[in-house]
């Protein structure tokens, strides 16, 4: 059995006294739920594809069958897994903060909906969600049933030529305006910022930690390995977030 990660006292103290905490999460937070990050090798029928090349409007335009199958597969994978102790610890931390009338914003790049499933309330989905889809032509919205579509690409019930796409933000697309505004508000008002399970290479989220730090917020990181934010952070925990977050939140809320 591995040893438990050390939780820096400075992190615990900063969180305990924070008036507005801003948390940014990435695919690493869901890794221990069994959902693969983009940088992990894919297995099975998807092994030969680069997910980065499937997550673009051009790929959807060129091959809607392939792209909608890939997202349908990801919805199916989500249905087979559940939030892990890291998601639950963040929901617990939010509850603790809000019970004390303090601000808490969770910015996520994840599209799996696991933070909400774990009970987080103030979640800003920067990259959208795979749980709802829309017609690429008329924008009619659909909630994914969780079961595979009958045919690919899935078609709109309202307009015969319309093809459905997930409500995610693809590379090259704009982030939802409301999400980006809420993110900027949180970064402008937080006194503590924590980046968790994100490689810090996808913009604009990769600049959030730097921006919060430049304004005077304490910056922390939890990741398996160092990232571009590590050198800027006041302290880092290099360990699985599903292990580190419950330990951290236990100490903050004790
Ligand atoms: N679950 C999801 O919703 C999901 C899954 C895959 C990719 N994505 C998308 O991937 C894009 C890439 O950005 P990203 O930074 O989120 O993901 P990423 O794949 O680029 O990076 C994942 C990061 O998590 C770290 N990590 C892996 N396992 C971890 C663990 N158990 N604990 C802590 N850290 C861990 C890795 O070291 C890496 O730095 C985003 O646009 C996001 O929307 C989302």
Structural overview:
With about 250 residues, the protein is α/β, with parallel strands linked by helices. The protein folds into two domains: about 1-35 and about 85-125 and about 175-254, TPP-binding domain (Rossmann fold); about 35-80 and about 130-170, SIR2/SIRT2 'Small Domain' (2-Layer Sandwich). The chain has ten helices and nine strands. It has helices spanning about 10-15, 30, 50-55, 55-60, 65-80, 85-100, 115, 175-190, 210-215, 240-254; strands at about 20-25, 105-110, 125, 130-135, 140-145, 165-170, 190-195, 220-225, 235-240. The strands form two sheets. A six-stranded parallel sheet has the order 3-2-1-7-8-9, sandwiched between helices. Strands 5-4-6 form a three-stranded antiparallel sheet, covered by helices on one side. A hairpin with a 5-residue loop joins strand 4 and strand 5 (about 140-145). The longest helix has 17 residues, at about 65-80. The protein is elongated.
């Amino acid at each position: 059995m591995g040893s438990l990660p050390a939780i820096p006292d400075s992190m615990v103290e900063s969180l305990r006294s924070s008036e507005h905490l801003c948390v940014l999460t990435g695919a690493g937070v869901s890794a221990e739920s069994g959902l693969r990050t983009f940088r992990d090798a894919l297995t099975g029928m998807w092994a030969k594809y680069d997910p980065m090349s499937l997550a673009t409007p051009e790929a959807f335009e060129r091959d809607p069958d392939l792209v909608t199958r890939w997202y349908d597969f990801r919805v199916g994978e989500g249905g087979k897994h559940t939030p892990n102790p890291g998601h639950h610890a963040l929901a617990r931390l939010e509850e603790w903060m809000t019970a004390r009338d303090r601000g808490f914003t969770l910015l996520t790049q994840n599209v799996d909906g696991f933070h909400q499933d774990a009970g987080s309330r103030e979640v800003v989905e920067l990259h959208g969600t795979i749980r709802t889809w829309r017609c690429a032509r008329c924008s009619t919205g659909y909630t994914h049933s969780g079961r595979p579509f009958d045919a690919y690409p899935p078609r709109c019930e309202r307009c015969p030529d319309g093809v459905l796409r997930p409500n995610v933000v693809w590379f090259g697309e704009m982030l939802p305006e409301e999400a980006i505004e809420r993110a900027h508000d949180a970064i402008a008002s937080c006194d503590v910022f924590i980046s968790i399970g994100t490689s810090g290479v996808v913009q604009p989220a990769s600049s959030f930690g730097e921006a919060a730090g430049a304004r005077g917020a304490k910056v922390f990181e939890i990741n398996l390995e160092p990232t571009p934010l590590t050198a800027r952070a006041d302290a880092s925990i290099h360990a699985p977030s599903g292990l580190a977050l419950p330990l951290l939140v236990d100490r903050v809320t004790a």
